[in-house]
Records
---
Amino acid sequence: MRVLRVEMGAFCVVRLIVSRQDDISLNLKLPGYSYIWRRVTGVKKTFDVISMRIALVSAFPPSRHHLSEYGFHLADELRRRKVDFIVLADELASEQAELPGFVVRRCWRVGALNNVPRVLSALRQCQPDLVWFNLVYSTFGANPMAAFAGLCAPALARASGFRTHVTLHHLMENCNLRHADINFPRLYQFAGSIATRFLLRADSVSVLLERYRRVLHERYGANNIGVRPHGTLGTPFPPDPALRPPTEFRMLALGKWGRYKRLEPLFDALPAVLDAVPHATLLIAGCDHPNRPGYLANLQEKWGTHPSVKFLGYLEEDEFENVFRSAQVAVLPYLSSGGPSGVAHIAARFALPIVAARIDDLVRLADEEGLALDTFDPENSAELSARLIALAHDSARRERMAEQNHQVALNTTMPRIVASYLAEFARLLGEQPQIPARPEREVTTA
């Protein structure tokens, strides 16, 4: 007996057991796909359809840890495509209800040293066809030992027989550790390079910028790297001038604040902006960086009563539309970068012009994806105020920037991004991976 194996799309495989000579016409329809396979000889009259099963290892809401929002949007698109998947997520600090419609297993804890055996145990139980890791270097903890140990998970999962893919949102080589208050930055860089080598032992790796791919190829000799854009997190909205009246100039800053994302340059620029644009308002949204508790509270104590400053707190997903669509500009006052900015992509989703610090990752992001953004020296608040004032006085330019960012959002929607991932996963699974056997699904050959 032999097996005919036919790939029928990005996430489905059909296996037919051949037992005797027979001609059939098979018309198979799947969500979003239709295939007709004619004159197949020697096919038994029964067949099995086996869906690709994915384990997504990621922080996941209601957690607010690194990349939890991004993990949600990946999972949401997998769900929309009716992919069989499970989220292996971080444990919550307190009892909270899981988001409806997702299968979530919280099997690792931020800061723990034993995350790798816990993740591997979960994988052996759920038996995925492919394991997808959604990572930054601090996903498994800010403690260096916990972070390093967790980053070994993709290599050890592959060594255990699972196909693995890593989405790596930044590179240690591109992080300016001076702004992270690291005592021994060279030691961190060395450990980071070793962690990178472990991550590259996954079957394949996706990075978000072409620059990252070149670094991994030139410095580490990696050839299993693909470039896939960050993507637009949610449905893009066209610009609506009615929601942005000319009598207002709302400047919005969103982030996890206190480490390399800092608001001091923006507050230093605010007096000059208000002198030139009296109707300007500064909106501060987000939360403290996990390593900088109390940062926003200290700023709110100083600026909370200012009539032109509003602290909005952490924004839930359903609050984005109202806040972003009524703002005139998104401001990214970063001292360095932790990768292509998710906030910039949220701003593009809501057709919002961007004023961003002139740091390499943001400049490269604008070049590679075509985002419309003005830049300023991150150490120069006067240049920041000049950029904001010029934009406030040029409504036509704001409209052009808004339309350009809207077009970028349309070209990088999550359906397109996830479709690219699924095509890569199908390629990996087409290489006959040695995945631990599932007796109830196994088809024998002779």
---
Amino acid sequence: MGAENSFIQDLVRGVRQKLKVPRGRIFSAGNIVSMSRVALLPAMLWLLKKPAEGTWLALSVILAAVIAATDALDGFVARQLNQVSELGRVFDPIADKICIGFVGVWLSMYRGLPIWIPAVIIARDIVIVIGAFVIARKADVVMPSHQVGRVTTFVLTVTFFVYVIDWQWPQIVLVWTSGALIAASFAVYLRIGWHMLRQRTWIG
């Protein structure tokens, strides 16, 4: 328990330190990159309804790569331009959750992804988002990301890409790996959120 509390304390201190950076504008460069990810989503969903072959497949791959690249680019741009902000830390994960949720549903409808994958993703993300808002109100801090969450997002991205191109042989392994990581990330964020709420006296 002592080690666990120390881990949570370190997370809180790190987030508080980060929150001292200047607030960026809503339309800062990093936030625009995050918004562009969501803006490109309708085109991606439209392409997923097309056959996974020829020009349609090529366009799907290109657009999927662009959307994935924005996930890494937004944070990089914000740091390089000293525009890291509380708002940016909210935009980025919400943009991720919107894209992953919708793409997961569309892949289930049109490319054979098991429906339980987007179902558990959406259920997990609803709980995490609600919990993050509760923590922001009660503890006055943005809930930190965790390495398990980042790994989960990466593996889900790879899994979705495999379904986009209809590459069948690695699908089952990636699906079950994704499922295990979704459960693990959910457990990690529940633990972090619970301890941040219980020990909010650290903040202030």
